[in-house]
Amino acid sequence: MKIYRSDTLMTEDASIHIFSDVCEKEEMPIHVHDFIEIIHVTDGSADQTINGETYHVRRGDLLLINYGSTHAFLPREKVAFINVCFKPEVLAE
């Protein structure tokens, strides 16, 4: 299982990383990370598995994935999303 770390995603002085992406058939295999992730699906649909539970997500859905949660992403069709990743300390601030 791949482990993503905030220090490879965010610069040292940043606590938040925001990006958008479009996936057609590219699966994101099961992984875990040390940051919180919010995903807003802006178009299309996919299956998102979080801690062993699979959810069908589609345009308009918002997902919150806590740090340390295992999850995977499998597009059902072309899917677009906005991803907001932030360190847990941001909530304490």
Give a brief rundown of this model.
This protein is mainly beta. Helices cover 9% and strands 58% of the residues.
Q: Can you tell me about this structure?
A:
The chain has 93 residues and is mainly β. It is built from 2 helices and 9 strands; from the N terminus they run E-H-E-E-E-E-E-E-E-E-H. It has helices spanning 6-9, 89-92; strands at 2-4, 16-23, 28-33, 36-43, 45-50, 53-58, 62-65, 71-75, 79-86. The protein is globular, with a radius of gyration of 13 Å. It starts with a strand and ends with a helix. The relative contact order is 0.34.
Based on the model shown, name its key terms.
four-stranded antiparallel β-sheet; single chain; about 90 residues; mainly beta; globular; 2 helices; five-stranded mixed β-sheet; 9 strands
Write the topology of this structure.
Layout: E1 2-4, H1 6-9, E2 16-23, E3 28-33, E4 36-43, E5 45-50, E6 53-58, E7 62-65, E8 71-75, E9 79-86, H2 89-92
Parallel strand pairs: 1-3
Antiparallel strand pairs: 2-9, 3-8, 4-7, 4-9, 5-6, 5-8
Strand order, main sheet: write it out. Answer: 1-3-8-5-6
Helix-strand makeup class: mainly beta
Q: Rough shape?
A: globular
Number of helices: 2
The percent range for helix content is: under 10%
What portion of the residues fall into strands of 2 or more residues? over 45%
Mean pLDDT: 91
Low-confidence runs of at least 5 consecutive residues? none
Radius of gyration of CA atoms, rounded to a whole number:
13 Å
Number of E-state strands:
9
